[in-house]
Amino acid sequence: MKVLPHPGTAGALSLLLPGTGQFYISRPGAGIYFFSMALIMWATTFGLLGWIIHILAALHAYSYGTQDQHEATQYLGQNRIR
């Protein structure tokens, strides 16, 4: 049985370094996107608004981690009924 990543861990990872939470929940495309957006935002605003991407990446990783857990729970529930 596959162990699913914890949504809270994914959110915390992305809060520290945008993109790492997305890689943790197996969404590398989103991870690359958030990491590059954080770099661009930190560089273009001279460090003033980069934290916004950290928050958005954390929310994204948490919500997709929660969604993955919900889908897995539904799948397991359907298999038990049959």
Distance between the termini: 18 Å
Average of per-residue pLDDT values: 87
Low-confidence stretches at least 5 residues in length (pLDDT < 50)? none
> Would you count the extended β strands for me?
0
Major β-sheet annotation: none
> Level of helix content?
over 70%
Global outline:
elongated
How much of the polypeptide forms β-strand, as a percent range? under 5%
Order of helices and strands: HHHH
Structural class category: mainly alpha
Number of helices in the DSSP assignment = 4
- Rg over alpha carbons: 15 Å
How many domains in all? Answer: 1
What does the model show?
This protein is mainly alpha-helical and 82 residues long. The chain has one domain (7-81). The chain contains 4 helices and no strands. The chain has helices at 7-16, 20-24, 28-44, 50-81. Helix 1 (7-16) runs antiparallel to helix 4 (50-81) and helix 3 runs antiparallel to helix 4. It is elongated and about 50 Å long. The model has no long low-confidence stretch (mean pLDDT 87).
Question: What are the SSEs and their pairings?
Answer:
Blueprint: H1 7-16, H2 20-24, H3 28-44, H4 50-81
Helix pairs in contact: 1-4, 3-4
Keywords:
single chain; 82 residues; mainly alpha
Brief characterization of the structure:
This protein has 82 residues and is mainly alpha-helical. It is built from four helices and no strands.
